[in-house]
Design a protein that fits this description.
The protein is α+β, with helices and mostly antiparallel strands and 172 residues long. It folds into 2 domains: 37 residues; 117 residues, endopeptidase domain like (from Nostoc punctiforme) (endopeptidase fold (from Nostoc punctiforme)). Helices cover 44% and strands 19% of the residues. It has 6 helices and 7 strands; from the N terminus they run H-H-H-E-E-H-H-E-E-E-E-H-E. A 5-stranded antiparallel sheet has the order 6-5-4-3-7. A hairpin with a 2-residue loop joins strand 4 and strand 5. The radius of gyration is 25 Å and the shape is globular.
Amino acid sequence: MNTLSLRRHSSLQFMIVMAVLVFLSSCGSKRPGAYSSTKAAKAAEAMAELKSKALYRFITDWTGVKYKLGGMDKRGIDCSGFALLLNKEIYGQDIPRRSRDQADVIREKNPDQLKEGDLVFFSFGGKEIDHVGVYLNHGFFVHASTTRGVIVDDMNLPAYQHVLIKGGPVKN
């Protein structure tokens, strides 16, 4: 190889090495940011920021329990049963069994002012309330989903925003 060919070959190798380094460093710098913006990471952050450690333990203990209409135990639970048990165990409050009756015992407030432990009500089937969850923080709530069981979910998703009816704390 002559000197000119050797320099071109070295320059090409140098360019390839630099391109690989730039690619690897850019992937490395974007990776943590991409992870922290996922729904799961945001839900985990909402859980980590709960003021009530008893609420945190209750939710983690029930997470993943399957949905069962009328259910009230770890073999299956529905949304209003979950809200009832959570309010009884964590806050010492007795509330009605059905979600539409639970909606009658809250002090309604603006959704932007919801606080940890407030009940949130939805209507997926029309005008009447047919679903309840418990607000956590940063727009997240916990509920018994008919398809995913007990789960922490993002209330800011359009699927929930369009059917949110009201929310607030239980009246004392």
